[in-house]
């Protein structure tokens, strides 16, 4: 790291950059990460935040800018998102995307889950009503940006699908297999495309629920 | 013009009493520029508010003025005061507005009491045009591809207008966007300059701003520029009045020089914002 | 630099067009025939056993089928036509294209040759990466494969000569001005290629080489100045002929091109109304001479 | 991350059209030879006719390639604005009718119309362009208001320039009736219209500005952009240039940005081009006037 412009508080360990500020030369040694862009051979900051420098395993140096606030996020292809089902019909389910990765969105984005993207195997035998009900909370992966209406989502992975669902009676159900969930009060079983959730994700989800 | 029935409308024939003020109205309409210059500046080249021609008014910036918004900023440039709030990125609702790139939505509004003449609650023509100028300027600075299919809203409310509102709005909006951590290629600094036949006045007040008047014998104009200091690019440029290209070049130079002086001020304000945020985060962590 | 002329100085373009009146012109509602035994074609309707026209145009008869060809219409596709279309939408398993037809035309994912040869299996990934092959705004040359019940055209590009178009210049003319020919792809001697889409979209580009066409790659290198000149001149010749309602095909375009060079016109001169009529007249004269 | 900001933006100026990357590249690489053979500073041919609308005090129709604009000026008496008792005024109204392009349907063209309108107003405001005190009839009480209605018949790019040329032509032909102020009994002044319908005066339009749009494409800029060229460009300037080569208003358009140096050079070029356009337009208007009553071509073609 050679040049900092106007970086007055070098003594206080962290360096704060502002948009348009030159961070360093865009050489082989440095990689521009989140919050940066490259222009005229320099890595520049595009956020107001703290400059974070981390050495990569391959000995290159990753330069990032992290703003104190939550990052500006919108869903992008490949992201895992948390969504609430809003509408189900035989061909697709509509949902409202609530979180992208770990970050809670201030406002939901619309998503669509097509029948053929519900699971990876036996795609033809999927019945939407036996997979999702309105108000279910699902984990899904963003396949593409889709069209003007919505993002295209997929649950065709073991770890993806319904994580929180309420029985008809209104209690949160417990998964009893990858296609069924059961109400702990009435013992009624309902069909769902259940996500195989590893323990740490569950705790995460609970936190999120609490936050909401 | 649709009338909002929920608001109290004044009678149509009402007009500002200031028009009745006894002034040399007739004289002012057709004064020569030499006289005009004398009105605005005394023999020692000092302006009415004790500034030199190339001095700007004191600048005051603050972020986080609106707690609900993603980012916000307040600017005070002399008596020109305005607030900017940034929301989003949120989903674009109308299908017809769909674009793969991110979009900006800007609203520029004068408070009804912000000018000498009362402003209407509805956006008037001038405000619409100012909104458009603001959007076009900020679009050049914001990394729109970071939020495809979504839009960021930028709202400007002018609380008090004492000249150069667009220039102040540009600086304020870029500060608000940066404090909302919306990725930007560069900050935008706004600045205005008034051209008198033989003199340039930086950062004009309302009285110093160019007004369309009759029979000026020489060139007279007003220029507002939005400048991205690190990229050395102009993202807004509005000129009204009569000038030669050479004069415009001179005006542009003065304005960009001023913008370069403002840049560190805005940067400092942003740094303080980030520091404050870090401090409060630290406290939260300690509490836990 | 600037050419302003008064409306009274501008010649009428239609003085050039063939002045022989077409034989059987009808307007909507005019009686075509009272005789029975004819089949009702496009642009006609039957009432009280009489056949009436429903559009303004020329009556055409093929055996027992009577139809009216409208004077001005959008592209009315036929199977096997060569068309040029612009992608307007990427949706599931298909692209939608603007081909100047009444409805958006469709290019199915299965009707294109994806890189990797004929035998390549189409996977779900292909469906998601459709935008990588063709995205909104891209131009393709294609052939009409099928016409759906609602009249929308289904296209295919399963031949090396069809596919994504690279650098060049698109001119839109009325489809009726394009003469049907054996081939609609021409490498012209002036150093440029032209694709005359039956739908009235004419594509002018640097000379196409057989081996490169048909892919999804766009060549973004700078086109040499000489090629550019040829393309610009051709473009202006095509618009000039189209403005004078002259039929467009390789010979007429080359005649116009040669005439404009022989007359010593600069390329931009061909935008001027008087030069346009002059060129059109010269082309007509050329044809008349060839006839004799 | 390293994409230049300019390449990421579409146009925001007017009716959007789609172009492929290759077509854009083709336009970008044009080396002072544009797709239609023009050099960077060439206009497309312009066709002009004035005096087509008999009920208007002045009118003109101007066609620049596919952009077609009809302007009618109506002269009316009104009381002057309280801020400016000694002046008449010009009121512009642009109508982007749905006939021009389907995208203007409903409120679609409103923003564009507003922008053009406001910019015209801006460029006509300074005292250098038109002498508004000529329009005063009776100080503080009566003045002429020129309603300039601009109808966009067809939209084929470069609307600013087309509209401004048409407006200037219409104002050139505008006839303002002679009016006399007869004082009755010393207190109530009365207006008396001249009985001779040919007793009219005309405005001095020598200095009325023409708008010159310069769009930046790559490292160069060009005048009179086609819709395709507008689509390739992210920024440009509209410059109002008066007959005396002075600049009376400037606005940056588009969502891109410009380097100060190129901006200055654009302003200089615009003022040169504007002066030439102004001169040729005035020459043609004079020519049409002196030719006297020729057959009007009108809309039948």
Automatic annotation (TrEMBL), chain A:
Exosome complex component CSL4 C-terminal domain sequence ranges: 105-145
Superkingdom field: Eukaryota
Localization (cell): Nucleus, Nucleolus
GO biological process assignments: RNA processing
Transmembrane segments annotated in the record for this chain: none
Domain Exosome complex component N-terminal: 17-54
Keyword vocabulary terms for this entry: Cytoplasm, Exosome
Sections of the chain in a coiled coil: none
Gene Ontology molecular functions: RNA binding
Main localization, broad class: nucleus
Pfam families: ECR1_N, EXOSC1
One Gene Ontology CC term in the entry: nucleolus
Record Gene3D superfamilies: 2.40.50.100, Nucleic acid-binding proteins
Entries under PANTHER family matching the protein: 3'-5' EXORIBONUCLEASE CSL4-RELATED, EXOSOME COMPLEX COMPONENT CSL4
Protein name as it appears in the record: Exosome complex component CSL4
Originating organism: Daphnia sinensis
From TrEMBL, chain B:
InterPro entries found in the cross-reference section: ExoRNase_PH_dom1, ExoRNase_PH_dom2_sf, PNPase/RNase_PH_dom_sf, Ribosomal_Su5_D2-typ_SF, RNase_PH
Signal sequence bounds: none
Location of the Exoribonuclease phosphorolytic domain: 56-183
Primary location group: cytoplasm
Cross-referenced Gene3D superfamilies: GHMP Kinase, N-terminal domain
GO biological process: nuclear mRNA surveillance; poly(A)-dependent snoRNA 3'-end processing; rRNA catabolic process; rRNA processing; U4 snRNA 3'-end processing
Superkingdom, natural source: Eukaryota
A Gene Ontology term for the protein's cellular component: nucleolus
Subcellular location: Cytoplasm; Nucleus, Nucleolus
GO molecular function: RNA binding
Transmembrane segments: none
Assigned protein family: Belongs to the RNase PH family.
Self-association state and partner proteins as the record states: Component of the RNA exosome complex.
Protein name: Exosome complex component MTR3
Native species: Daphnia sinensis
UniProtKB/TrEMBL annotation, chain C:
Example of a GO biological process term: TRAMP-dependent tRNA surveillance pathway
GO molecular function: RNA binding
UniProt keyword rRNA processing, yes or no: yes
Ranges of residues in domain Exosome complex component N-terminal: 25-62
Residue ranges of domain K Homology in the record: 168-207
CDD domains: KH-I_Rrp4_eukar (cd22525), S1_Rrp4 (cd05789)
One Pfam family matching this protein: ECR1_N
InterPro entries according to UniProt: Exosome_cplx_N_dom (IPR025721), Exosome_RNA_bind1/RRP40/RRP4 (IPR026699), KH_dom_type_1 (IPR004088), KH_dom_type_1_sf (IPR036612), NA-bd_OB-fold (IPR012340), S1_RRP4 (IPR048565)
Subcellular locations according to the entry: Cytoplasm; Nucleus, Nucleolus
Residues annotated as domain RRP4 S1: 74-146
Main localisation: cytoplasm
Record flagged with keyword Cytoplasm: yes
Keywords attached to this entry: Cytoplasm, Exosome, Nucleus, Phosphoprotein, RNA-binding, rRNA processing
GO cellular component: cytoplasmic exosome (RNase complex); nuclear exosome (RNase complex); nucleolus
Family affiliation: Belongs to the RRP4 family.
Assembly and oligomerization: Component of the RNA exosome core complex (Exo-9), composed of EXOSC1, EXOSC2, EXOSC3, EXOSC4, EXOSC5, EXOSC6, EXOSC7, EXOSC8 and EXOSC9; within the complex interacts with EXOSC4 and EXOSC7. The catalytically inactive RNA exosome core complex (Exo-9) associates with the catalytic subunit EXOSC10/RRP6. Exo-9 may associate with DIS3 to form the nucleolar exosome complex, or DIS3L to form the cytoplasmic exosome complex. Exo-9 is formed by a hexameric base ring consisting of the heterodimers EXOSC4-EXOSC9, EXOSC5-EXOSC8 and EXOSC6-EXOSC7, and a cap ring consisting of EXOSC1, EXOSC2 and EXOSC3.
Protein name stated in the entry: Exosome complex component RRP4
Organism: Daphnia sinensis
Protein encoded by which gene: EOG090X09DD
Automatic annotation (TrEMBL), chain D:
Matching Pfam families: RNase_PH (PF01138), RNase_PH_C (PF03725)
Single biological process term from Gene Ontology: exonucleolytic trimming to generate mature 3'-end of 5.8S rRNA from tricistronic rRNA transcript (SSU-rRNA, 5.8S rRNA, LSU-rRNA)
SUPFAM superfamilies (UniProt xref): Ribonuclease PH domain 2-like, Ribosomal protein S5 domain 2-like
GO CC terms, sorted: cytoplasmic exosome (RNase complex); nuclear exosome (RNase complex); nucleolus
Main location: cytoplasm
One GO MF term attached to the UniProt entry: mRNA 3'-UTR AU-rich region binding
Localisation per UniProt entry: Cytoplasm; Nucleus, Nucleolus
Domain Exoribonuclease phosphorolytic: 43-177, 207-272
Keyword Cytoplasm: yes
Keywords: Cytoplasm, Exosome
Family: Belongs to the RNase PH family.
UniProt-recorded name of the protein: Ribosomal RNA-processing protein 42
Source organism per UniProt: Daphnia sinensis
Gene: EOG090X0CWA
């Amino acid at each position: 790291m050679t040049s900092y412009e106007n970086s007055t508080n070098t003594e206080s360990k962290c360096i704060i950059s502002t948009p348009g500020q030159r961070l360093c030369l865009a050489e082989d040694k440095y990689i521009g990460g989140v919050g940066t862009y490259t222009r005229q051979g320099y890595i520049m900051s595009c956020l107001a935040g703290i400059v974070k420098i981390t050495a990569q395993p391959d000995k290159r140096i990753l330069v990032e800018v992290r703003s104190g606030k939550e990052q500006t996020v919108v869903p992008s292809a490949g992201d895992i998102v948390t969504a609430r089902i809003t509408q189900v019909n035989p061909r697709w389910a509509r949902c409202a995307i609530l979180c992208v990765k770990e970050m809670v969105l201030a406002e939901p984005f619309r998503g669509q889950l097509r029948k053929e993207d519900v699971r990876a195997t036996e795609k033809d035998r999927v019945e939407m009503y036996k997979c999702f009900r309105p108000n279910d909370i699902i984990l899904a992966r963003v396949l593409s940006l889709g069209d003007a209406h919505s993002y295209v989502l997929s649950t065709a992975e073991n770890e993806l699908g319904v994580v929180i669902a309420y029985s008809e009676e209104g209690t949160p159900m417990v998964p009893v297999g990858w296609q069924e969930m059961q109400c702990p009060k009435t013992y009624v079983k309902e069909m769902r495309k259940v996500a195989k959730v590893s323990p740490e994700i569950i705790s995460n989800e609970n936190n999120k629920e609490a936050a909401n | 013009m649709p009338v909002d029935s929920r608001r109290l409308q004044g009678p149509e024939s009402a007009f500002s009493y200031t028009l009745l003020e006894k002034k040399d109205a007739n004289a002012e309409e057709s004064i020569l520029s030499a006289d005009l210059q004398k009105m605005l500046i005394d023999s020692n080249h000092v302006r009415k508010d004790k500034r030199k021609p190339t001095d700007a008014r004191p600048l005051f910036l603050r972020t986080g003025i609106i707690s609900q918004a993603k980012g916000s900023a307040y600017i005070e440039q002399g008596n020109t005061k305005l607030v900017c709030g940034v929301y989003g990125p949120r989903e674009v609702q109308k299908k017809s507005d769909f674009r793969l790139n991110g979009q900006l939505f800007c609203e520029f509004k004068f408070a009804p009491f912000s000018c000498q003449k009362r402003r209407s609650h509805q956006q008037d023509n001038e405000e619409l045009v100012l909104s458009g100028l603001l959007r076009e300027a900020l679009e050049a600075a914001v990394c729109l591809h970071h939020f495809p299919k979504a839009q960021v809203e930028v709202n400007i409310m002018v609380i008090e207008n004492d000249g150069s509102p667009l220039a102040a709005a540009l600086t304020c909006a870029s500060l608000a966007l940066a404090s909302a951590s919306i990725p930007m290629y560069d900050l935008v600094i706004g600045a205005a300059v008034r051209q008198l036949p033989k003199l340039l006045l930086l950062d004009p007040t309302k009285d110093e701003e160019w007004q369309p008047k009759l029979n000026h014998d020489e060139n007279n104009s007003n220029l507002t520029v939005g400048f991205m200091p690190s990229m050395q690019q102009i993202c807004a440029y509005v000129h009204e009045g009569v000038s030669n290209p050479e004069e415009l070049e001179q005006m542009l130079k003065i304005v960009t020089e001023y913008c370069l002086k403002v840049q560190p001020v805005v940067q400092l304000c942003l740094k303080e914002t980030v520091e404050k945020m870090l401090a409060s985060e630290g406290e939260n962590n300690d509490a836990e | 630099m600037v050419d302003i002329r008064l409306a009274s100085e501008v010649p009428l373009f239609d003085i050039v067009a063939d002045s022989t009146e077409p034989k059987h012109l009808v307007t909507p509602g005019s009686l075509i025939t009272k005789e029975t035994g004819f089949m009702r074609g496009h642009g006609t309707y039957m009432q009280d056993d009489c056949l009436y026209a429903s559009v303004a145009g020329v009556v055409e008869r093929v055996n027992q089928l009577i139809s009216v060809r409208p004077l001005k219409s959008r592209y009315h596709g036929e199977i096997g036509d060569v068309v040029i279309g612009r992608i307007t939408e990427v949706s599931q398993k298909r692209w939608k294209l603007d081909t100047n037809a009444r409805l958006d035309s469709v290019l199915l994912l299965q009707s294109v040759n994806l890189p990797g040869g004929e035998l390549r299996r189409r996977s779900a990934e292909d469906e998601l990466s459709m935008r990588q092959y063709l995205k909104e705004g891209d131009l393709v040359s294609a052939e009409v494969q099928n016409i759906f019940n609602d009249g929308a055209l289904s296209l295919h590009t399963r031949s090396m000569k069809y596919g994504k178009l690279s650098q060049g210049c698109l001119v839109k003319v009325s489809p009726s001005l394009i003469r049907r020919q054996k081939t609609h792809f021409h490498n012209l001697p002036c150093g440029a290629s032209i694709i005359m889409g039956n739908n009235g979209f004419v594509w002018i580009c640097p000379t196409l080489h057989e081996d490169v066409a048909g892919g999804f790659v766009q060549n973004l290198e700078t086109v040499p100045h000489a090629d550019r000149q040829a393309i610009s001149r051709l473009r202006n010749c095509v618009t000039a002929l189209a403005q004078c309602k002259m039929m467009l095909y390789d010979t007429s375009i080359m005649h116009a091109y040669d005439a404009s060079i022989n007359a010593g016109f600069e390329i931009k001169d061909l935008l001027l109304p008087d030069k346009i009529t002059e060129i059109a007249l010269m082309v007509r004269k050329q044809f008349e001479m060839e006839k004799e | 991350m390293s994409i230049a900001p300019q390449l990421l933006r579409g146009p925001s100026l007017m009716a959007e059209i789609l172009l492929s990357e290759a077509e854009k590249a083709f336009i970008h690489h044009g080396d002072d030879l544009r797709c239609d053979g023009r050099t960077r500073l060439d206009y497309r041919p312009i066709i002009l006719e004035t005096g087509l609308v008999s009920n208007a005090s002045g009118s003109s129709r101007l066609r620049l390639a596919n952009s077609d604009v009809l302007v009618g000026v109506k002269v009316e008496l009104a009381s002057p604005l309280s801020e400016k008792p000694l002046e008449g005024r010009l009121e512009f109204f642009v109508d982007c009718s749905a006939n021009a392009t389907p995208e203007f349907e409903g409120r679609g063209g409103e923003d564009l119309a507003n922008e053009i309108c406001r910019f015209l107003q801006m460029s006509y405001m300074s005292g250098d362009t038109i002498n508004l005190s000529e329009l005063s009839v009776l100080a503080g009480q009566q003045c002429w208001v020129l309603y300039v209605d601009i109808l966009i018949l067809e939209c084929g790019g470069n609307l600013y320039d087309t509209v401004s040329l048409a407006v200037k032509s219409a104002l050139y032909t505008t006839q303002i009736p002679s009016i006399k102020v007869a004082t009755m009994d010393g207190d109530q002044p009365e207006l008396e219209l001249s009985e001779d319908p040919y007793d009219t005066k005309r405005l001095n339009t020598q200095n009325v500005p023409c708008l010159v749009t310069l769009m930046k494409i790559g490292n160069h800029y060009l005048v009179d952009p086609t819709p395709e060229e507008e689509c390739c460009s992210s920024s440009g300037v509209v410059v109002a240039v008066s007959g005396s080569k002075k600049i009376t208003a400037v606005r940056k358009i588009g969502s891109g940005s410009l380097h100060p140096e190129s901006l200055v050079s654009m302003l200089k070029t615009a003022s040169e081009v504007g002066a030439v356009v102004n001169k040729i337009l005035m020459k043609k208007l004079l020519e049409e006037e002196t030719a006297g009553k020729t057959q009007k071509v009108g809309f039948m073609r």
